[in-house]
Design goal:
Elements lengths: L4 E8 L3 E4 H5 L6 H8 L3 E4 L6 H16 L8 E5 L10 H9 L6 E4 L5 H14 L5 E9 L9 H4 L4 E9 L13 E9 L7 E3 L12 E3 L1 H23 L8 E4 L4 H11 L10 H4 L6 H11 L8 E8 L3 E8 L1
Parallel strand pairs: 4-5, 4-6, 11-12
Antiparallel strand pairs: 1-7, 2-3, 6-7, 8-13, 9-10, 12-13
């Protein structure tokens, strides 16, 4: 039996667009330098009144509209973010209240750039066991609020945004049809020994400050290609399919070179990889659902397609999910 089904998606971006040329006027960098090393051309940056919760709420509303459902149909919200509105309560509860969803569980998941994969797998597990019927799974970030805007090696890499999907529990009364929609397989991993390669140097318990993002880019790149390649093979083996069966890969949008290297190791053409990093930069937990929604709405991803989600982030955390749309 397949897992829960994606029945709708939505996304939201801040109004303000910041180009590489805009950043070059602020720090010692250039449009050519950023594009060559990352593939990024612009990013959306949250302005006054825009927060992680406002972006999450907008993406959730779009996903509900796409699914043809109302907030009353949702009895679970799992929100992935590393930049919550408050230390507590969970940003998911603000989304629940704003939408007017029933009083089912609503909680945040913190796995940084892998957060959406962690949230999707958690929600799928709850739905397939009957704990809930329909869930909003959201990735939302305002990473611009934790960047050191004087560090040219990191501030050029990130942007803000949100993406959401509506998951619906499988019909437990009858077996899923071969080739039917649903989550086919998921794998999650973590390696806390790599903490110092990608982290934020603050927190309520350690420094009583928010802190700024710190990253050793070369080491992160090396781990990302190896870890993502391995987890993709694990998921393919679990699902009993081969790489050639995949219609689309929707990866975490960290760096165009990582996307290219991972696809090459799997023997997949670049044409099968959904790329939005040029428009949005790295939106952390929002990047996978944001890219997925964009590709659905422009007609690339269609019902029946076999789609692989994958991501790696600070912690290190990483994971992948194979989904029939």
């Amino acid at each position: 039996m397949t897992g829960s089904r994606i029945v709708g998606s939505g996304s939201a971006l801040p109004e303000q667009i910041v180009t590489n040329h805009d950043l070059a006027a602020r720090v010692d960098t250039s449009d050519e330098w950023i594009i060559e090393r990352t593939g990024i051309r612009q990013r959306h940056i949250a302005g006054e009144g825009e927060t992680t919760s406002t972006l999450a709420i907008a993406a959730a509303r779009a996903a509900l509209a796409d699914a043809g459902l109302t907030p009353a149909d949702i009895d679970l919200i799992v929100l992935a973010t590393a930049t919550p509105d408050n230390t507590f309560p969970a940003t998911a509860t603000k989304v629940q209240h704003a939408l007017g969803c029933p009083n089912g569980p609503a909680f945040d998941v913190g796995a940084v750039c892998s957060g959406f994969l962690y949230a999707l797998t958690t929600a799928d597990s709850l739905l397939t066991t009957g704990a809930a019927r329909r869930a909003l799974v959201i990735g939302a970030e305002t990473f611009s609020r934790i960047l050191d805007w004087e560090d040219r090696t990191t501030c050029v890499l990130f942007g803000d945004g949100a993406g959401a999907v509506v998951l619906e529990a499988p019909d437990q009364a009858r077996p899923a049809q071969n080739g039917g929609p649903g989550v086919l397989a998921s794998r999650l991993h973590a390696d806390g020994a790599q903490h110092d390669l990608l982290y934020v140097d603050g927190g309520p318990s350690s420094t009583q400050t928010v802190g700024h993002l710190r990253m050793k880019g070369r080491e992160v790149f090396r781990h990302a290609v190896v870890n993502l390649t391995n987890v993709l093979h694990e998921v393919l083996d679990d699902a009993g399919v081969c790489a050639d069966d995949i219609d689309w890969i929707v990866p975490h949008q960290a760096n165009k070179r990582i996307l290219d290297a991972t696809a090459k190791k799997l023997g997949l053409p670049a044409e099968k990889v959904i790329v939005t990093v040029d428009m949005h930069a790295n939106t952390s937990a929002a990047s996978v659902p944001l890219a997925f929604d964009m590709a659905r709405r422009d007609g690339r991803i269609k019902p029946g397609d076999l789609v692989m989600f994958e991501a790696m982030g600070g912690g290190f955390t990483w994971g992948a999910s194979l989904v029939r749309i």
